[in-house]
Amino acid sequence: MAINVNTVYTTVLSILNKEQRGYLTPYEFNQLATQVQLEIFEKFFEDYNQYIRMPKTDVEFASRMDHIKEEFQVFQKTEYSSAQVGNVYTQPTDLHRFGSANYEKGLNSPELEIVSARDYTQQTLSPLTKPSFNFPIATYKQDKLKVFPPSTSGYTLKDVIFNYIRKPKDPRWGYTTGSLGQFIYDPTIASSLVASSSLMSSVTTPGTGAGVGGVYTYEPAISSGGGTDGKITITIDVSGNVTAAAVSANDVGYGYSVGDTITFSGGGLTQALVITLQASDLLQGTMYSTNFELSDSQQTEVIIEILKYAGVIIRDPQIVQSASQLSAANEANTKR
Questions:
Q1: How many CB atoms lie within 10 A of CB 287?
Q2: pTM (2 decimals)?
Q3: Rounded to the nearest 5 degrees, what angle is found at the Cα of 25, between the Cα atoms of 19 and 30?
Q4: In whole angstroms, what is the distance from residue 239 CA to residue 208 CA?
Q5: Is residue 124 assigned to a domain?
């Protein structure tokens, strides 16, 4: 279960204001929360590397290896390439840590062996190591995979599927302003599509239908960003033209950003419809919140780390020292 951003913010404010040490504005908190979440997230991989080399236990709920894998499994994704030119495939736009890639043209989708340019040259010289569709290889450079052997049947985006880790979405404490100028928490999820709004002005590749007409509801087939769960209702006339594309009122999704491309296909569409999101398609302003994506087992560490930075902002060394001591004790306990 994710950490509620309001719980963290109110806890931090309670600790800071216990002795009237200072106040942390929503803007300052959101900046610190983003930094702290990313630091803890990156630390997962260093801890995982360390736990691999430590004595292991199979006792239920006590395995550090299992626990750390549970922490970052929520960020694991499997997506097709985001662009393709010939046998060169661009990685998904939200890829943060590359894991592996599979070649869908081979039998049982074999994993691509990533090699250097020098190794590629050497492997192609021998009939025994020369790449084939069932034993493909690739070079990885500038966020692109160049796959071998070349195909004689053409290429598509879905030839290569990436397995990777994405970054967590930035936490955000959204608010409205009260009559006295106070900040009032808004629990509405941020980065969502605007309910019931039309997306026709954002269509960059018009889809076409089969010519029978009808109204269809779609979930995105491919999203170039971190957005998920949004649905749109598409109206197709008898000539096969898409005449309307509106966001479903109860399925606005979350995690979308300006510039994300969303592809809808199948159903009544014979040609995919592609939408590139504009600012007007998304919920904007100081309102709308995004919870931490870290599990609630990390809540204590999140609060302590935010307090360390908050002590710097309000220039209180006692807060920094106390939070640092708690953080060091917690770190030492997990490494024993």
A1: 17
A2: 0.70
A3: 120
A4: 9
A5: yes
Domain check: are 266 and 302 in the same one? no
Q: Structurally, how many domains does the chain consist of?
A: 3
Q: Measured between alpha carbons, how far is 333 from 331 in angstroms, rounded to an integer?
A: 5
Beta bridge pairs of residue 103: 160
Domain that holds residue 150: 77-166
pLDDT surpassing 60 at residue 288: yes
Residues 131 and 66 in one domain: no
Domain boundary among the residues 281, 307, 323 is at 281
C-alpha span between 134 and 326 (Å, rounded):
53
Q: pLDDT tens for residues 35-59? A: 999 999 999 998 888 888 877 777 7
Query: Which amino acid type is present at position 116?
Result: S
> What CA–CA distance (Å, rounded) separates 263 from 325?
49
**Tens of pLDDT, residues 99-125:** 999 999 888 999 999 999 899 888 888
User: What's the half-sphere exposure (Cβ side, CA atoms, 13 Å) at 274?
Assistant: 9
Q: Do the domain assignments include residue 214?
A: yes
Predicted confidence band of residue 19 (pLDDT cuts 50, 70, 90): low
